[in-house]
Each structure stands twice: as structure tokens, then as C-alpha cells.
Amino acid sequence: MGAHPQGGSAIQVTSIGGHPPLHTVKPLGRTLFNRVFAAIYALSILALLFYHAKTLFYPTTLVYFSVTLALLISDLVLTFFWVSTQTFRMFPVCRKQFPENLTKIMERSDFPALDVFICTADPYKEPPIGVVNTALSVMAYDYPTEKISVYVSDDGGSALTLFALMEAAKFATHWLPFCKKNNVLERSPEAYFELNHTCTSEAVNIKKVYESMKVKVEQVLERGKVDDEYISSDQEREAFNKWTRNFTRQDHAAVIQVLLDASKDKDIAGYLMPNLIYVSREKSKASPHHFKAGALNALLRVSGSMTNAPIILTLDCDSLSNDPETPLRAMCYLCDPATRPQLAYVQFPQIFRGINKSDIYNAEFKRLYQINVMGFDGLSGPNYLGTGCFFQRRAFYGSPSSLASPEIPDLAPDYIVDKPVQSQSVLALAHQVASCNYESRSNWGSKIGFRYGSLSEDYHTGFRMQCEGWKSIFCDPDRPAFLGDVPITLNDALNQQKRWSIGLLEVGFSKYSPATFGVKALGLSMGLAYAQSAFWAMWSIPITAYAFLPQLALLNKVYI
Ligand SMILES: O=c1ccn([C@@H]2O[C@H](COP(=O)(O)OP(=O)(O)O[C@H]3O[C@H](CO)[C@@H](O)[C@H](O)[C@H]3O)[C@@H](O)[C@H]2O)c(=O)[nH]1
Ligand SMILES: [Mn+2]
């Protein structure tokens, strides 16, 4: 990194002290053609705008003037989108990782610990069995198991989700050794069984165990409560007792439940399990909760007080891991002394399941989640896409050169937690930092952690980190690292677009607008690239104008 491939066509290799390389980067071919094409295209845009301007100055009628003005405005908006798109087309790059070389530069026992954050918010919109599959798929990563801690944030504060995860913890003791022994690629059980891999008796048996867990989780969901017959120990009962009569999703105390403890819980083969921790932060109608950014900041602090791993993976509950090697790929950058000091995050693309081949609704968002990101990657690095992203914890605490210290030293990114996750002092601190008033009058959301003020917290956070001087890397291996879900109803899809547009405009019109602050901090190309997303909603102007004006003009015999 640093030396980006601008102007050269050679593959850049980073090798460490004579060891084989961990990664390479090379510019994508065809950029020259695109630049020539862009130059010609730019000239025709100028000609079009000149034509509009000329006709505006010599209008024949008021109607003619208004139509031309509307078209000029529309074309100016389209020009802005075209110009900003060119920033993505100037230096797109393609990267390769060599995870097999990782153990040649460091021992597996020296791999950094990894905290995984999984967000869920509503058991009826995001079925708990899906959350369970996502959690299992990362718990079974090909990575030193005792170094993995999976934190599930439940913003729905639902006992149903907690129940599902308790069941997942039990099933994991069978599933993890099964995956490792049989070298399974699909480490989400649902994805594995869908492929009909059940040819051995061992696979048939484990499928039975999975199915019985799934039935239980779905029955509980259907009943809407965890009945006594489903509770198998006093410890579990104690956990569910936290759902008192006045517990609602908008108003309740923090619930933090350690479901698996990496220091003592073992799988059926006798190996240690990862940590699995359920977190539902405290909510109160009187305090702002800041949606997902608030949930993630609570997780940053809770995980900080319990394990404080230097690397964090953020996932939406529908983002299944599709490749157990993924953390090793991310570590190719995060453990490389050449890239690490300035590297905030390694972003994997969002790729979706269940889209039909022709994708007539463009649900794949390929341009947003894959194509443009390669363009960003050749500049200062991709934007943060909200899921499938490995962060350095340090990047949440100020710029690479100056640490923004948190209020309590135990939350500092380099603090070493030397007590077990279930010790009383650790749990007490975890509850304290998950409280809803903890952030008031602090730097959380402004200078520390995920940034508030936008519904598109992912875009906002990545952008602000880059403005602070952090870099990022796009990692797009051939086998998709994660597979997610897209909204399948028109209503959900429209709501998503509305939420994104509002969130992006909130950044676009803030004092940190990419068009002003961004251009100053990141330079013209990166500023423009970020501005394109911020003002995405402006597409509605040319779309509306071109949808109606030509037809109306034709019907009314106005020549344009
Ligand atoms: O108050 C909230 C709201 C949402 N979520 C979680 O946030 C994730 C994303 O929400 P979703 O409704 O699925 O939004 P999408 O539009 O599908 O998500 C895209 O856009 C979001 C930003 O708008 C990003 O955060 C996501 O990572 C990105 O996949 C889900 O796991 C939710 O459970 C919370 O934890 N708390
Ligand atoms: Mn989603």
C-alpha cells in the first residue's frame, strides 16, 4: 500500500524480510481505453451543455425556456454523476492474497485475537435461525479457535434470539469438530445441508441434531415466548428471568450472557470453543439509541472490557461466512508490517444469495458493492460497506498518529484483559459500558467509535476514518467470503433505498460533507468519489425530468 499503482502496470509485491509475499496488487487492464473514451465523452457533454446554455439565452417562449432549463439542470446532475464515476475508473486495482504464506512469517499461536460483531434487531424480520447460522459459520473459521470471540448484538432485546443462541452454543460443540474433521467449506449448517452433502452416517447424524435444534428454535419463535419445557438448566432460567414484566424492546436493562467461554468450554472432541456472548445493550425511551451505530459502539465497549481483540469483524446477521479461510486473507494485510500501521480496515464485497440469474431488479448492487469499490481501492481505499469488514480496533480511537483516549483506560485499544470473561469485575464493567447513559457528554459517535449523525453509519464511519488519515483495502477473492440477503419485497426494497438516501444526504449536507471537507482532507478524486454516494438521491431529478418532459413536450408540440 502507500505506493499505489498509478501510472505503472507492474504487479506490486510486498514481501517481508525475504519471505514469500502475503499479497500482490495490480492495476486493472483497459484503463487506457476508458481514459480515451472518457476524454471523447467529456467533449460531447460540453457540447450538450453549450447547446442548452445557448438556447436558454434565446428562448422563443416561456414554456420552451422552462423545458430547456429543466433539461439543463438534469444534464448538470448527470454530468456530476458521470464525472464522479470517472474517479472510480481511473485506477481500479485487483488484489491477490496468499494466506498459505502467513504461517511462514508467524506462528499460528501469534495470530491476533479476533472479535466478531453480529448485529440483529428483530426476530421476526431477521429469523433467529439465520443469526444462529451466521454465528456458527464464523465460530468455525479456520483460525485458532480460542482466539475468536463472537458477540451478538440484539437490538430487539428478544428472549427468542437469546434462546436460539443458547441452542447454537450446544450445537456448536458438535458442528465445529465436524467441520474441521471433514474440511467442510460451507460452515453455515443450513448452506451445508442444502448442498446435500449427507452421504456419511456422521453427516446424517449431525443433520438430525441440526434439524431438531432448528425445530425447537422455530417453535419458540412461533409461540413468541420461551416456555418452561424448553429451558434445560437453572443457569438458563436465570438468564430468561431478566425479561421481567416491564421489559420492552425500547426500554430494558442491559443483558449480557456468556454462552460459551473460550477458557473452559470444550467441544465433543475435547478442543476449546470460541467465546460466544449475547449482548442486548440497555435501552431507554429517554436516551437516543443511534440505531446500528449505537449498537456497534456498545459492542466495541463490551468486547473491549471482555476480550479487547486487536482485530474486529463486523457482520450483519444475514452475512454468512462462505469461506473458512477469510480471516487469514484479511490477516495477510492486517499482519503485514508494511501495510498495518495506516490500515483501518479490510473490506470484503457484499455478495447476495438467492438472486435469480438475470437479476432484473438489479438487486445485486454490483456497481455499489464490487465495481466502484475496486476504483476506490486504487485511490485511498474502499468505503466501509457495513458488513464483511475486518477493522483494526485502534482505528476507532483517533487518527493513526494521535490516539483519542477513551474515558476509562480499560477500554483503550491496547489494553490487555487478563481476567476471564466470566469474572465478576469483567462482567460488571461490561454492564456498565452497555448502559444507555454511558455515552452522554463523551466522544463516542463523534471522535471515537462508529460515527453518529447518519442512518448510513457505514459510509459515514469509513469516510471519517479516511479523512483522519487511515487507509483501507478491498479484498475480493474468487470464492465469495460472505453471502447476504437482499430485501425481497418491493416495500422493503423501497424502504432500504429511502433509508440509504436519507443517511447519505445527512452526511452530504453536514459539516463533514465530502464535497467540501472531504475534498480538502482526501483530495479531489476521493472527495468526488465519496460525494457521488452522498448525493445519490439527486438521481431523482434527471429521472423525473426525462420521464415526463420529452413526452409532454411532444404532445404539446414544443420542440426541444
Ligand atoms: O437499530 C438498529 C437497526 C439495524 N440494526 C442491524 O443493522 C443491520 C443492517 O440493517 P438492515 O435493516 O439489514 O439494513 P440494510 O439496508 O440491509 O443494510 C445495509 O445498509 C446499512 C446502512 O444503512 C449497513 O449498516 C448494512 O451493513 C448494509 O448491509 C442488520 O443486521 C440489523 O439487525 C441494528 O442492530 N440496530
Ligand atoms: Mn440487510
From TrEMBL:
Pfam families: Cellulose_synt. InterPro entries: Cellulose_synth, Nucleotide-diphossugar_trans. The keyword Cell wall biogenesis/degradation applies. Coiled coil: none annotated. It is a multi-pass membrane protein. The chain crosses the membrane at residues 32-51, 63-83, 534-555. It comes from the Eukaryota. The keyword Cell wall biogenesis/degradation applies. It is found in: Endomembrane system. Keywords: Cell wall biogenesis/degradation, Glycosyltransferase, Membrane, Transferase, Transmembrane, Transmembrane helix. This is Cellulose synthase-like protein G3.
